[in-house]
Every structure is written in C-alpha cells, then in structure tokens.
Design a protein that fits this description.
about 250 residues, alpha+beta, 5-stranded antiparallel sheet, 5 strands, about 60% helix, about 15% strand, elongated
Length: about 250
Amino acid sequence: MSALFLFLSMSHVALADTVDSMAKSVIELRRQTEELNTEYELRKQQIADELKSLSTQKMELSAALNEAEIKEKQFTQKVIESKKTLNKKNVLGEDLYLTNKKIISELKDYIENSLPYLKEQRIESVLQIEDKINKKEISAAKAANLLWGLIADEKRLAKETQLTKQNVSVEGKELLAEIVKVGMVTMYFKTDKGQIGQLINEQGAWQYQLIKDKSSQEKVLTLMDSIKKQIRNGYFELPMVQVGRNS
C-alpha cells in the first residue's frame, strides 16, 4: 500500500512538473509572440513610411518603365510580323534574304535608340551576321535563326538589372566605370575615380550626368552593393530617373 501511495505521489509530482513546464513554455511563447508582433508592426510602419516617401519617385519611374515597355512592345510587334512573313511557305530564297535585311535594319535602329548598354558589342553582333549574309557565308535560314537569337537577347536585357563595367563619357573624358543597368530604362555608374552619376536621355540624346548630392550618391552605392551580394528583390530608393523623349 505504501509503495502504491509513493508511486501515485511521484506521478502527481511529475504531472505537476509537466504542467508547470508547459505553462512556462506558453508564457515564453506568448512573450516571443508579442515581441515579434511589436517588431512586425514597427517594420510595417517603417515600410509604409518608406513607400510614402517614394511615391513621387515611383510615379516617375513607372512612367519611364511604361515608355520602355511601349517601345519593347512596338519592336516585338515588328518582329512578330516579320516572323509571320518568314513562316509563310512561299517565303524562299530572295524573299527570306529581304526579310533578314529588314530585321537587321530594325535591330540596328532599336539598338541605336535604346539605352547604350554594351552598345558597341550589341551592334557588332548584328554587323557580323549582316557581313556573313553579304558574303554568302551562311544560308538565309541560318541567318534568320541567328537574328532571332539576338532579338531574344534584347528582350532579356529589357527585363534584367545587371552590374558590369564599361567606358562612359563624363565631362568630355572617356572613363572606365562600374555600371548598374535598370532594365533598359536607365543606368547608374561609378568611375574608378569615385565619380557617381546617372545616364539620362535629353531630347533623344543619352548623356552621362554626375550626381552631386551625397544622399543620392549613397543610394546608387547601396544599389550596386546589393546587386554584388545577389540581393535583387526588395525596396531600393534610387535618385530620380530623368527621361526625355526621343525625337
């Protein structure tokens, strides 16, 4: 009987300890939940404040993106029309040759008027195909496939944000700079001398303009650093995008 009583007593003690432990766990979880909720509310308010301060900039950037999207759609439509022509059974020989020539002309025009990102390399890719066509080194069908590849590259560039290096013309001097391309809307740059700026479009002409404001410079550096760290999602406060209209 004593042994049974001892066993029951120990069971009650163990149960009490378990309940007490569970109660402490619940209290701790509640504390952590409250802390997380407070942190969440603070972060939510911070994001709301950031979004509010960026409202004007977002409108400007949205307009720029819309303009770039319209240009891309117009170019894509031309490509689709050319491809429909190419797919017709009666497009052979000279007809296919002329179709390729038309696409080459449109590609050149698009690259000349688009953001001058790696412009020389992009133009050179088109010229190489054109040269092979003129020298009859490749068939019309082969040329068409190569041209579709270049078109796919251009569409990809319009959607990507990339960090690379290229020469920029700053105040009459050609300088090697680290650049970050935002789609095909604009580019920011930092020269080896530490000069920071932005590529803007003034009445159809692209110009590299230095950014003097320290706060705006920091925003560009933050964007570049984020891209280097493979951080491509999130809120990035950028200097105001200035976009003119092509004539």
